[in-house]
Specification:
This protein is α/β, with parallel strands linked by helices. The chain folds into two domains: 128 residues, Rossmann fold (3-Layer(aba) Sandwich), CATH 3.40.50.1980; 127 residues, 3-Layer(aba) Sandwich (Rossmann fold), CATH 3.40.50. It is 45% helix and 16% strand. Helix 6 runs parallel beside helix 13.
């Protein structure tokens, strides 16, 4: 009888052990499934060109917009592919290294290279908008172009979109808040009776940009009153003469030398050194063309732009 009882006890223990093992394996399997589901969490991004489903924390990211590259880098996210065939701003020069793939220029994506990378995300803006469908066939593609008529809102939306994809929302909010404080302080110190005119020089010609244009944030965000509120908003600006500058007679003449980033040889200082401008009561403020023309809309570029305008009106 004792032997029978001992045998039954052993059998019961074996059955319980087997059940425990089975439950443990089931639990482990269930946990693995949950981890897998978590790793496949996605973000739905509504943008100007459509709606894109993006897996959170994508790898091998391709970035064409330098403002977006700026923002991601500031948030601690490194792109794998960059439009290195175009001139990178100095503060983003680390992406010129061989560690990062060259995916073409800002206007001509290298589709073969991008396809070979099998990226988890492609980020574009206005210059690449025509290639959106082709790029979307390769990987989820998100458009983060700036809305010049609503610059601040557009900047915040793009920043938070990128931050959400990579789980950096809290960091982005802190950066945006700090930037807003700087801009508010800058606007408080802005002289109300002084005006500004933003111009771009290229190929010996000059264009002016007013409120609502690609450089309109000088007026609408930073608070510099416009010397001329009738300038038609356009990506290419309004063609002007130096007589026009003398007639408008702005207190601050902001100058962006496009040739400096396109060919590496700027000519704006010589171009603007003429009797019409020199005889007017105008202060020339030269802005960093790589930041203003190439990487606007980024966390650091936006701050740099504010600092340049602030320094220009206070010196």
């Amino acid at each position: 009888m004792k032997k029978l009882m001992m045998t039954l006890s052993v059998l019961v223990m074996m059955v319980l052990a087997a059940c425990g093992s089975s439950e443990g394996e089931a639990g482990a399997s269930s946990g693995d499934g949950e981890d897998k589901e978590k790793s496949k969490e996605t973000v739905t991004v509504d943008h100007e060109l459509g709606t894109t489903e993006v897996e959170k924390n994508p790898e091998d990211v391709v970035v064409f917009d330098f403002g977006a590259l700026d923002t991601l880098d500031e948030l601690g996210i490194e792109a794998k592919g960059v439009a290195k065939s175009s001139t990178l701003p100095d503060y983003l020069s680390k992406y010129e290294k061989d560690d990062y793939e060259n995916v073409g220029s800002l206007k001509e994506p290298d589709f073969e290279k991008i396809n070979s990378m099998d990226p988890g995300l492609i980020v574009i803006s206005g210059r690449q908008s025509g290639a959106y469908e082709d790029l979307s066939d390769i990987a989820p593609t998100v458009y983060v172009g700036m809305d010049n008529e609503n610059y601040m809102e557009s900047f915040e939306k793009n920043t938070r979109t990128l931050a959400e994809i990579f789980g950096k929302t809290e960091e982005a909010d802190e950066e945006i808040s700090a930037l807003k404080e700087k801009i508010d302080k800058m606007k408080e110190d802005m002289p109300e009776d002084k005006t500004g005119l933003v111009t771009l020089a290229t190929g010996g010609k000059v264009s002016a940009y007013g409120p609502g244009s690609r450089f309109g944030l000088v007026h609408e965000v930073f608070g510099v009153p416009a010397a001329d509120n009738e300038i038609e908003a356009s990506d290419h600006g309004m063609s002007i003469s130096f007589e026009y500058i003398a007639e408008q007679n702005p207190d601050y003449l902001f100058i962006i030398d496009r040739d400096k980033v396109v060919s590496g040889e700027g000519q704006a200082k010589e171009l603007y050194d003429n009797d019409l401008v020199n005889q007017a009561d105008v202060k020339k403020v030269y802005l960093d063309p790589a930041v203003w023309y190439l990487s606007g809309g980024g966390l650091r570029s936006f701050e740099k732009m504010a600092e340049e305008v602030s320094a220009g009106i206070s010196e």
